[in-house]
Amino acid sequence: MAKYFDVHPENPQRRTITTVADSIRSGALIAYPTDSCYALGCQLGNRDGIARIRSIRNLDDRHHFTLVCQTFAQLGEFVHIDNDVFRAIKAATPGSYTFILPATKEVPRQLLHPKKKTVGVRIPDHVITQALLSELGEPLLSSTLLLPGEEAPMTQGWEIKERLDHSVDAVLDSGDCGTEPTTVIDFSGGDIEIVRRGAGDTTRFE
């Protein structure tokens, strides 16, 4: 059964955040709120966690996983960014955007798009996520909590606990969070491509 953590939305309890971060380091798969919607998350090199996310969401190997980063400097360790792209992403973060970029060697091979060798990265504007990332000290491997056959992501912690009780190890609930997935912008092909229109305003990329 998944552990359920009720977290204060503005002042998250340090002990709870530390407990969850420790569980992630020990191999846990969690469901957690972000500035767009709930996501599934595990440690970067957690092969079992990756397999469980694929199973829960019924994903194939072409799916772009996302590395959720605390800072821009951390993000830069895992993707290649030229000057023009740097300025565009810098202006839009933190926020509800996922950016597809060529991955560095720091990214495990199983996370890469098999042909493009790219990965998704983002910096969320969310108190709980930022607190967790700060405690963890590394990016969180993530994917939107959108179940197969459903058009909208799950948004209620108690519902996630009920439906995924035997599929995840922990659920963080800080009350209402977003209802739309991130806007996905692909910079890997030279031109800017809006892959998905979501919570982030696309005007700056059009």
From TrEMBL:
Domain (YrdC-like): residue spans on this chain: 14-200
SUPFAM superfamilies: YrdC/RibB (SSF55821)
Superkingdom to which the source organism belongs: Bacteria
InterPro entries found in the cross-reference section: DHBP_synth_RibB-like_a/b_dom, Sua5-like_dom, SUA5_domain
Protein name as annotated: Threonylcarbamoyl-AMP synthase
Organism expressing this protein natively: Streptomyces flavofungini
